[in-house]
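Crash report, auto-generated. Payload:
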Amino acid sequence: MTVSIRIPTPLRPYTDGQSSVSVQATTVGGALASLTTAHPDLSRHLRNDDGKLRSFVNVYLGEEDIRFLNAEDTALTDGAELTIVPSIAGGAA
Amino acid sequence: MLRIDREQLERLHSHAAEGYPHEVVGILAGERCSQTVHHVQPLINERADSPANRYKVSGLALMRAEQALEDEGHEVVGYYHSHPDHPAQYSDYDREHALPNMSYLIASVGDGGVVHTQSWRLVEDRSSMQEEAIQIES
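Recovered output after restart:
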């Protein structure tokens, strides 16, 4: 099924400037995998060396944070809308 | 190079001084193509557990703040935060959490106010951050 993924401004240089990318997938993890297969330079900014989503990368299905659903196993229906929402964090050592 | 209006840099420094000894955080807004900051937007540091050396703004709070700025015609150029009693050098923790293609301005602040300000950008392989010059516009 076709789902859309909304891309935040700092990551758009890796999606040829597109603010939204359509992929074929049945789960959130599958959608993100399709996205990074099509746009490989995005991968290092979304996932750490262990392949897990970085702590500042939040993914929403509609208005719900996937952490409160079934994480990357969350099932998608046709026309689902995913949004990548970065948080910001840091601080002196 | 990051360009910033003098008045906005002074607002940012005031925010850092008022927040001392805690870290403050905010958005650098303006024009992305020219890397110019015309507005600084203070945000709330959510790290109440360790405010002297950590900051965080959650995704939804950040998204709402950025949307409000974009509705006013601004673009997000980057973010700023303070390092109380610590140099304006980025930390590993800063680097690990940095977004690409954004400026990260750090203000070193003591009890007498801001002593130094530097701006950094994440390099493409995420291994370090590179300093960028700051040009103050009158």
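Post-recovery validation: Chain B touches chain A at residues 23, 25, 32, 47, 50, 53-60, 62-63, 75-76, 79, 81, 83-84, 86, 90-94, 97-102, 104, 124-126 (CB under 8 Å).
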